[in-house]
Amino acid sequence: MPPDLSLIYGYKGGPGHRPGWVRAIARQDGVLAMKAILCDQFGGSEVMRLAEIETPAPGPGEVLIRIHAAGVNPVDWKIREGGLARLFPCKFPLIPGWDAAGTVAALGDGVTGLSLGERVWSYCRKPEIQWGTYAEYVVMSAYGVAPMPAGFTFAQACTVPLAALTAWQSLLEVAGLRPGQSVLIHAGAGGVGGFAIPIAKWVGATVIATAKAGNHDYVRSLGADHVIDYSATDFVAATRALVPDGVDMAFGTVGGEVLTRSYEVVKPGGILVSITDKTDKDLAERLGIRCKYVFVKPDGGHLRRLAGLAEQGILRIPEIVEMPLSRAAQALDLSRTGHVRGKIVLTIG
């Protein structure tokens, strides 16, 4: 069992003190322990181990979250294998995981707007990759933490932050999608696509999505106006048949040749946004369109907006496969196959 931080941390407040939580009691050996999945080097499932390490303490402007569920994303096994080492500095031992849902266990100096015990969710990416969410506790900047949607379970909530923030920031913050515009969303049944479709419909856009035939009903239920079976139809020709002048935005959630050909479906003045491969600015310029590569950023304000959409039923929670923290290696290997419908969730305490 994780330590009871209501006993370990004491409240500091009153006249002359800023609200905050300070370490008050330690175990006899001086260490407050938590369970976590550690990687001591890059590699496959063999580099992952369940260990007991020191529980972190929040600094000024930070929140200590007691994690009840952590979302598993493809980026997690890419980190495990060293695939993001060129983008972000990594340090060992390394705890994978960026999605978390849990309760506020402690507040650092100066944190406002959150309270002890509050149910919260967060996309816990930091400038340096080391202390992730496959653990009983994580420290995160308060800027990236927000209250969970009312009525959500921890398992449901932890499936949302990374994927939904990616969709929100790509469609609204970068592309500036507006009512009456059109958008092609690749992999509509996928993690990001499954949130991008309802967000685009909420904005008032016409949505064209790609998906395998067996997922068409599901993708339409998310709000897609048109669905293209990319395995049986040329998606460029099919999109142009629906929107002869081209779409206002193409959302590249699939890389390689699919992304390269997606430039062809964007109208002059439109934009292609990629979350997989770097964009080709020379090609975009020749076609008279814009392009942008997006790597999602933590943002508690955006999470609060997404919580509102979730509470209205606009965002649909994917199917969930729950596994205990001790099976994190198997969870990443399963994610790596690419054959999981919905999301894998690690349950933690």
TrEMBL record:
SUPFAM superfamilies: GroES-like, NAD(P)-binding Rossmann-fold domains. Pfam families: ADH_N, ADH_zinc_N_2. SMART domains: PKS_ER. Residues 43-346 form the Enoyl reductase (ER) domain. GO terms for molecular function: oxidoreductase activity. This is NADPH. PANTHER family: ZINC-TYPE ALCOHOL DEHYDROGENASE-LIKE PROTEIN C16A3.02C (PTHR44013). It comes from Paramagnetospirillum magneticum (strain ATCC 700264 / AMB-1) (Magnetospirillum magneticum). It comes from the Bacteria.
